[in-house]
Amino acid sequence: MLSRKIEDETVFIVFDMEWNQPFPGKTYPFDVSSLSGEIIEIGAVKYVYDSGMLIQKGIFSCDIRPQKYTKIHYHVKKVTHKTNEDLQNGLTFEEGYRKFREFCGPDFILTGWGNSDPDMLKTNLKFFGMEDRLNCFFLDIQPIFSMFSGERGKQRSVEFAVDYYGIPKNDSFHSATADARYTGEILKRIFDCNKTSEVLSVISSSSIDPDLKREYVNVSAEADRSEDALELIKGWNKICPICSGRFHPEISEFRIRKSVYALYACDEHGEFFSRTRIKKNKSGHYYAAAVLRFATQTDYYLVASKREEYERFGPVGAPLESADDNSIAEENLS
Ligand SMILES: [Zn+2]
Hints:
- This protein is of the alpha+beta class and 334 residues long.
- The chain has 2 domains: 11-206, Ribonuclease H-like superfamily/Ribonuclease H (Nucleotidyltransferase, domain 5), CATH 3.30.420; 215-333, no CATH class.
- Helices cover 34% and strands 25% of the residues.
- The protein is built from 10 helices and 10 strands.
- It has helices spanning 74-80, 93-104, 116-127, 141-148, 158-164, 176-193, 196-206, 226-232, 297-313, 320-333, and strands at 11-20, 38-50, 53-63, 109-112, 137-140, 215-219, 248-256, 259-266, 270-280, 286-294.
- The strands form 2 sheets. The protein has a 5-stranded mixed β-sheet, sandwiched between helices. Strands 6-10-9-8-7 form a 5-stranded antiparallel β-sheet, sandwiched between helices.
- The chain is globular, with a radius of gyration of 22 Å.
- The two termini are 18 Å apart.
- Zinc ion (ZN) binds at residues 240, 242-243, 245, 266, 268-269.
């Protein structure tokens, strides 16, 4: 997590996109994994921060004519109610994106619900040979809503948050523009319904740089004992992968069952979630698989709750029943 100062006249662009998907089993003349979705709509609302409030300054709405996935995928059709005919209208992605950036202006915080939209935007920019650096901070409103609504760690939908704040439902959901408007209303309510200093502190420390690689993995060589496997990649997660500066621990390393957890911080690059899992391969040897990533709010609660479990039950963890619950929760998070 990085710090982005919020002061009067700071611009927030709340955006949402819809994208079409390739048909499973169909062959395309390019690697489908390099274009997991093709953007067909961009919607956005501009807000300007002024003394603890957000003032709406404009709405952006743009249909994009896809060039690769020109037939609507049944799942996308079900969600967006768009038809094949709709996909023949709109601007090219290049033109639509240029207009979108014009609307954003030179300096802004990009925000949205969940973090899949900035990733998809970068995927499309890269695929179509455009500059894929977004050069702005991104703020995911979903975990911030969960925090202020007292539902830490829960992943709620836009509609849930709209109901929570009693926002009038005048538009249908799942058009990019309507969802961007609803998400903007939610962000506005978060400011209106909570103490400004608290909102600012959470928001400024939750922005991420979408142009930085967010997750780093390392897999050890084989070893006969699990402890030896851990030893083989020891120290790898103690150093910031961006600046090579030494981390200081926020929650020191501890092992619970087959995983070692920690929460680290770099002065310049913020908090990192660290988890190393001990695994066994087919030949019966152990190896360690480690992941280090920018800590999200959810990661933070995961480490904190594992730490609590560790303090209560030690490295063996909680008795089986609740241990199962934990492993399910964990899978959903990764
Ligand atoms: Zn660093």
